[in-house]
Amino acid sequence: RRDMLISLNWISDFVDLSGVDTDKLLKQFSLSTAEVENDIFYKGRDISGIVVAEIKSVEEHPESKKLHLLKVDAGDGELTDVVCGAPNVAAGQKVVVATIGTKLYSGEECFTIKKGKIRGEESLGMICAEDEIGVGNNHDGIMVLPADTPVGMPAKEYFVVEDDTLIVVDITPNRSDAASHYGVARDLYAYYQAHGQSVSLTKPSVEAFAVNSKELPIEVVVENSDACPRYTGVSIKGVTIGESPEWLKNALGAIGIRSINNVVDVTNFVLHEMGQALHSFDADKIKGNKVIVKNATEGQKFITLDGIERTLSAADLMICNAEEPMCIAGVFGGQDSGITETTKNVFLESAYFNPVNIRKTARRHQLSTDASFRYERGCDPNNTLYILKRCALLIQEVAGGEIAMEVTDIVGSEANSDCVFAPFPVTLNIDRIHSLIGKTLSEELIGTILDALEITIYSKDGNIWQIGVPRYRVDVQRECDVVEDILRLYGFNNIEFPEKVNTNLSYNPKPNPVTLQTRISEQLTAQGFNEILNNSLTKISYYENLESWPLSQCVKIINPLSQDLGVMRQTLLFGGLETIQHNANRKHADLKLYEFGNCYHYVSNPTAKEHNPNNPLVEYSEELHLGIWLTGNKTAQ
Questions:
Q1: Per-residue pLDDT for 102 more than 90?
Q2: 480/85 Cα distance (integer angstroms)
Q3: Where are the beta strands (DSSP E) in 343-485?
């Protein structure tokens, strides 16, 4: 699982959420798509008390060399006393001040500016840094505005900060299609369509994409088409690397991503917008004007963007130029081929990589990036070219430049002549739907839900339907997967419990111990118990002077690492008590725990040993035990 921060304002660019109750939307989303965590917070709410101010004077705090006493004009006709510890504060600066009563947000935490004293000096406000009002990530010092900024101007008006609801979504590994703002919007759209609500889904247009010249051709060769079934690329000549526009910085800042430069920011924006990772290269650093997608040489050294030299495996897929590797495909870029302040020409890559290959490479190098997270779970190979054009247009918008080559689009044998990867074929039995769901749904409703999910119905032969599942739904390739998808949109909570439940008695003379343990575990877990697992080795001191479990009956370790691990446990009791102590010391006193584990005993029996001289374990026994612990309050306060 992976937590993902989602902006409802961003989702609204794709699906109309006006008039939708936010609480109901989030509840529905948790039921049908992915769990929405409790961390729901807001950006840009209740900041009316933050205004532009001018620092009139600065004096050193008498009790601290790091603090300053300021006289601030906030446009209300009076000078306000503020204590500030920023290193870059100076008289005459135009700054942003949060006045008494203003609410500021740090993530989901909210705090209110109050009148107070700092080291004995009165402070009636706070001079803010970028990150403290959500317009950037810089916290090195206070934010200094241009000298001509009007005093008293609301910060919300100056920065054009919009109210936005941010939610933390717990994306399960199988739902890679929902790991983006458009993916979430698409799933919401499907839910509304399935329930008869008229909504529209808007995907950004790329019709304006056009090749302006052929002055910067980059040849692309894919040597391993199994690991890279599709590779698209295009060059953009004459870009100007610089700061991103406010809309782009605000969009990324809302979900906690630091702005780097306009070109890199666009690739990050498209990643979180559409769920497809891209990579931008400095085209002038591509030696031989050639990009080669091939496997690395075993033992080859490569320095990644984080400055770490890594030893490559022959199983690692690399993006190379004519002489050397530039990027670990789908995982991490190289140190010497990325975008810098001097970059003038860009080569943009949008590809579909084999998920298994990416997963193995990422684990091999202990790398987990936003790109590898999506690639290793499966992206949409039919979306690769669209993503390339979308990103190229945005780069032109924020950094200028012109498309300087024909788009390269190389596909493997799985695609047809039109570079289209066929939907996943599934045979769907309508009776099977009713059997698995436990309720009979009309064929019309099933068809409506399938259409909302963009699943194509090819043919119907009675109750047998032949359907095609879009390639972005990598988790839906079997009949039971389709049924689950139908059920989640219909609503698990809409399946009624029957008035009568039938069951069968078991006449087995002795229940299967594995099955019995599983059933007991399920029942305990359902009652709120947590299963624990403790070490079978334990302390000798626990069994000293005990009658129930005497030390003489412990299975002793011949060469113990320590007295704490000197014997095998005779009971689960002590391990459970250690767990309780560990939690209680960390203020988790209300516990319901259980453990299944083997316990070990030694009983001296010379007679049995004499009759079984070839069995050295005749005096030893091993039994499966169940331990249950309850501590603390029965109900929460």
A1: no
A2: 61
A3: 345-352, 402-403, 408-411, 424-429, 456-461, 464-469
